[in-house]
What we know:
The structure holds 2 protein chains of 2 kinds.
Chain A lengths: L5 H13 L3 H5 L1 H20 L2 H17 L10 H18 L4 H4 L8 H5 L9 H20 L2 H12 L4 H8 L3 H19 L3
Helix pairs in contact in A: 3-4, 3-5, 3-9, 4-5, 5-10, 8-11, 9-11, 10-11
Chain B lengths: L10 H9 L4 H9 L1 H29 L17 H24 L1 H9 L3 H23 L16 H9 L5
Helix pairs in contact in B: 4-6
The complex binds zinc ion (ZN).
Amino acid sequence: xxxxxxxxxxxEWPLRREGRAISELDDIDLLxxxxxxxxxxxxxxxxGDPDLAExxxxxxxxxxYNARLSFRGDSSVNTWLTSIAVNLIRDHQRTQKFKFxxxxxxxAVDVTDVASFIAVDCTSPEQQLIAxxxxxxxSVIIETLSLNQRTVFLMKFAEEMDLxxxxxxxxxxxxxxxxxxxxxxxxxxSQLGAQ
Amino acid sequence: MNNLQxxxxxxxELDEVLMGFAxxxxxxxxxxxxxxxxxxxxFRSQMAVFSQASMAWSDARSNTISRDILAHKPTRRLTLxxxxxxxxxxxxxxxFSLTTALHQGPRAADSAVVAHPDxxxxxxxxxNEMLAAINSEFGAxxxxxxxxxxxxxxxxxxxxSAVSLQVRN
Lengths: 195, 169
Ligand SMILES: [Zn+2]
């Protein structure tokens, strides 16, 4: 990578700023307000550890804010943030062999708690009960997937990202994303009893 | 599609429709075929309920976390080196205590077992030192690896600022 004197950066900075989502990345409150809950959900279900997910999400937002000058607008802010989160999750996964250090801190996703957040508008108590069971079941099934499968599955079906964005966030070729996604979907659908 | 006896989509074809890269034939079939559409709806409706509930849960949880991101201290990755160095420190401390106790003879060895204020103090200090080292590995800020998070496409302008960027942690 070439190095440039600071003056080049200073001259070029206002031009580059025009091409990216300035308001979102330069305003940390807006960044938190717009993206944190979504990131937190993604990291929580990717790691299966809500406490760790809070830390990773805060790390992710801080890193994004601090590195905002390197964001060139080639992808959406959401895709960029997701790629940072994926790298942080992978960092964590590399230390999983030291579970004895982590066990004292680890918490599991309380699927009953998540299920209690179903929308209750216009549904009967029976339907709500079924919906709660579905949410709890799906949460448990997602946890059985491998990290790559789980991550691409959440990106596609919970975050509703397209394959190109998933490929960019994961740093994987699209065909590899398709393979992980297909395996994940097959496993989820078969466990849901759809097949 | 399976065959003439079963004109509906296979499970793999249904998966491809859900993933968004099905063939045109499969897409047209699903649009016109109620049984195949219903099979897709089973997954879609369950996923929709999950998405809604998990997002509401996450929203509520997010609201309990500090909004002051700049005050957040990034976690430091616990590396193999740091774990081994902490373990090695502990082993050395134990070996030193044992050797000292044995060299000082039976009476000294006895006194090593019996509580002794000075010994307790040094042991406590040693333990605290080790715990502080471990805590700092868990909690100390580190230099962010900005390069990892750069977008993939090469861009001279971005390259310039990435080089000059110092992350404030
Ligand atoms: Zn059909």
